[in-house]
Amino acid sequence: MAKPRLHRIVGKAELVSTEEALMQAAIECFAARGFAATSIQDIATEAGISKGIIYHYFASKDEIMRRIVNRALDDLGRSYDDIPLVYASVHQQIRAFMQTMVTYVAAHPRETAIFVQERRLFTSSFEDLAARSDQVVMQLEDLLRNGTLDGSIRELASPHAMSLGLIGMATWLYQWTAQTPYTPDQIADTYADVVLEGLCIDRSSQPATQTTLPYTHDDNDWQDNGSPARQATPTRETLTRAAIQEFVSRGYAGTPINVIAKNAGVTTGAVYSQFSGKKAILHLIMSRFLNRLSRTMDRALIERLPLPDVTARFISAIFGEVGDHQAEMTIFLQEFRHLASEEFKDLRMKCNDIIAKIGAVLAAGIEEKQFRDNVIPDVTAIGVLGMCTFPFQWKAPAEVLPPETATMFAEVILAGLAPS
After folding, report:
1. I need a surface site. Which of 17, 169, 306, 400 has the fewest CB within 10 A?
2. Using one digit for the tens of pLDDT, what is the confidence trace for 31-79?
């Protein structure tokens, strides 16, 4: 039976192909809810059609995901493949890479959200997608290594981590595209300027900065759903750590309360004696991560450190200690979509506040001539946060990023910000 070529989707103003309309509906659902929490019926409802029509075009939800991600990788791949043919130098190719990535993210923020937030799913259930997306990273990593060999780029402790950082700098923009007045060209130029200046300056020429910060823990880490901070009980801490383990490996949507209880060695009732539900546990975990970053910025500013040292402290705090902190960051990145909901509105505000603090530090550094004057502070703040967090989204759950990675990122970013 031949498939109908055109179909009017209820609620859509234009006549579009049914297949494309279903793809767009799935993109909306996956980006907003996550793949695991989206059903075929959700996609049908979003598209305004009956569920049965979907199976005329796609065999399963998995096939829809593969089509979405493969199309995105095809679009990016065509642009990436042309870069070495058009630009000769490593510097030109890195700038073109940033331009390509930022332009794509600005035009396709929802597809980027899926690409970023579903990385755990790729490695567990979509190995073909993981392999294809890894090719992008390897291309950039090879470019950095070639730059080191020809002397145009400094020696890097981990070209692999830096390639992930550059991708993260460009892709983290997807959450703020609607909030920035700058064009993709302006953003890409700002990122490329910082990155290229940072990669091309020898470490020995940079002033000493504090790039390590000891992990600190206080009761504010245990603030739950905006309620006053309270002392963590052993059961509450055990449950939180059990949830962290399960959310990292299974994802939030794929982890029922009883699995958390089993991991913690308690009854399901014991979970509800400490938390109102699974969402409250997620809120706590994400809040702990953001609280830690916010306190680091506040302490550094209170100490009146030089602004480059404040920036280095913040970068070190993002990487934090191996253990709960890095796992919490992974969860924060995987489940970032929840910040759009009313229950997580306070965390969205907290995240925006952290970015504003970084932007204010950068702006003050420009005014005091400690940073270059052609940096766009708020855009660069988002880029720095994306650069330092994206490697945690990409790495395997058991993989650890050592302190040297934080030092490398701090050196490159501070060198890129330094006045000429």
Report:
1. 400
2. 999 898 899 999 999 999 899 999 999 999 999 999 999 999 998 888 8
Tell me the residue length of the chain: 420
CATH 1.10.10.60 segments of the chain: 1-58
Nearest to 309 by CA among 388, 418, 169: 418
Q: Which of 121, 83, 76, 70 is nearest to 102 (CA)?
A: 76
Other Cβ atoms less than 10 A from the Cβ of 246: the count is: 21
What does the buried/exposed string (b/e) look like for 86-122 if buried means 16 or more CB atoms within 10 Å of the residue's CB?
eeeebbebbbbbbbbbbbbbbebbbbbbbbbbbbbbb
List the one residue out of 410, 49, 345, 37 whose CA is nearest residue 198.
410
Q: Distance between CA atoms of 94 and 79, rounded to whole angstroms?
A: 13
User: Per the confidence metrics, is the pTM higher than 0.90?
Assistant: no
What class, spelled out in words, does domain 71-230+246-259+280-420 have in CATH? Answer: mainly alpha
Please give the structure tokens belonging to residue 278.
């699974």
16 - beta bridge partners?
7
- Per residue in 77-119, pLDDT (tens digit) is 888 888 887 888 999 999 999 999 999 999 999 999 898 888 8
Sole residue written with tokens 């990145």 = 333
| Residue (of 176, 166, 282) closest to 224 by Cα position | 282
Place of tokens 């990155």: 195
CA distances from 344 to 147, 199, 336, 408 (A): 43, 37, 10, 33
1-58 to CATH, choices 1.10.3080.10, 2.40.50.100, 1.10.443.10, 1.10.10.60: 1.10.10.60
Give the separation between CA 177 and CA 197, rounded to whole angstroms: 25
Distances, alpha carbon 327 to alpha carbons 17, 20, 161, 331, in Å: 42, 37, 17, 6
Show Cβ contacts of residue 177 under 8 Å, excluding neighbours closer than 6 positions. Answer: 105, 106, 109
State the residue for tokens 């043919």.
85
Q: Residues with Cβ < 8 Å from 274, sequence gap 6 or more?
A: 233, 235, 236, 239
Please return the burial class of 396, using the count of CB atoms within 10 Å of its CB with bins 0-12, 13-18 and 19+. exposed
What residue type is 350 in one-letter code?
K
**Residue ranges, CATH 1.10.357.10, the chain:** 71-230+246-259+280-420
Contacts (Cβ under 8 Å, ≥6 apart) of 13: none
